């Protein structure tokens, strides 16, 4: 490593250390407990000292989210002296049990989600001796908490983040604050319509309608420079919530907002650059000899993207009961086998020598333990719960096969990079076609497509840099396959359809 690279390496190492220090410092005065209530994983974050001054605040994540998404807000509120409770809905995060039905149906799985929420409210009201609770919900959960509060008399306030609901509020519905990101134009419009449907025409931001004292206030705020996810990490979100609690008469004097989002981004960026700088130290291995007919490959990629979705609409093996996960197992397996046998790919007898255990180990370790640990703690569920192990194992077979084929194409010489990215583009088209053909069962494929894109931009990018330098396509492909399978199996909710 030359002097220039050494300076950069130690700079990012210092930045990484500072990021983790600040992340740890943000929770150094807090007590965190992991519990299980009737099968629901729960995280309690509260001050070490019992003061009974703060509020009992229940935080609920959005669709395809987990407790990790709500961590930044929970920490901010706990540092201010409140007791915060966050949990995983059925099929989400670390919850072992799937949900059943169509999430768009108000009488579908949301009924069970509301039951979960009510159980959490009742349990922790009793445990911590509170007469009332405050509810905070993001995206899907904004509708859940509003529907719950609409039929309860023990809710002091409701705070909806990135709110979407069609609920009609009763006359005694508690104080309501709605926060939407500046870049969530549709949700802002929906919130204005929601206020209109509930008697407030042309609702304006930062204006309180109704009386806080009477418990029926309504208010809307816009969080600058925020999208659907970024809003959860914005300091402005924390400040507006803190100010709202003050309006409600909270006796807690100390207010706190943190920069967890910034330090997570800083840690993630530092890790990526450190990895790039360390690539030169990975063991070298000559690329195994193989033959690939690129003309046929172009044709196979195009035909498969068109043919496979229609084929799987009628013919598929039922490996798993969860429709999206099962489709991915079938799709990646069939696509990979089509490329291998119809192109075809021809290897010499020494192709296994391209697998380097050291490269494979360190690649999987870095992706899963280091980057994965950061993701699981602060962004989204990444480590498996017991109920997802079978899903992961089956996905691993198909994803390893696909990712290895993809890396071989990258290694195929002239136009290899173009062909590999053409394949990934056709995967996106093919999965989108599958959604169109069977939306009721495969609607969650849209989220999987997003994960596939993000995977390519991060893990795929780093792997290609490594492979370009050391040509360990078999080690890289199998490692990528395991990580892709872990991403899909941990982040995609478990659900059945009728």
Task: List the keywords.
2 domains; alpha/beta; eight-stranded mixed beta sheet; 498 residues; Rossmann fold; 15 helices
Separation, N- and C-terminal Cα atoms: 58 Å
Going by helix content, strand content and strand pairing, the class is: alpha/beta
What would the CATH topology of the largest domain be?
Rossmann fold
**Would you identify the CATH architecture of the largest domain?**
3-Layer(aba) Sandwich
Average pLDDT rating:
92
What string, H for helix and E for strand, traces the elements in order? HEEEHEEHEHEEHEHHEHHEHHHHHHE
| Biggest sheet statistics | 8 strands, mixed
Q: Assess the beta-strand content as a share of residues.
A: 5-15%
Tell me the Rg in angstroms.
25 Å
Total domain count: 2
Report low-confidence residues grouped into runs of 5 or more. Answer: none
Count the E strands. 12
| Total helical segments | 15
DSSP helix fraction: 40-55%
Name of the CATH homologous superfamily of the largest domain: Alpha/Beta hydrolase fold, catalytic domain
Approximate shape: globular
Write a short abstract of this structure:
Helix content is 53%, strand content 12%. It is an alpha/beta fold. The strands form 3 sheets. An 8-stranded mixed β-sheet has the order 1-2-4-3-6-7-8-9, with helices on both faces.
Can you describe this structure?
By secondary structure, the chain is α/β, with parallel strands linked by helices. The chain folds into 2 domains: 28-256, Alpha/Beta hydrolase fold, catalytic domain (Rossmann fold, 3-Layer(aba) Sandwich), CATH 3.40.50.1820; 282-496, no CATH class. It has helices at residues 3-25, 71-79, 109-128, 140-149, 185-197, 235-247, 260-278, 294-314, 323-342, 357-378, 389-410, 416-437, 439-442, 445-470, 473-491; strands at residues 30-37, 40-47, 56-60, 83-87, 99-100, 133-138, 155-161, 175-181, 218-223, 290-292, 345-347, 495-496. It has an 8-stranded mixed sheet, with helices on both faces. Helix 1 (3-25) runs antiparallel to helix 7 (260-278) and helix 11 (389-410) packs antiparallel against helix 12 (416-437). The longest helix has 26 residues, at 445-470. It starts with a helix and ends with a strand.
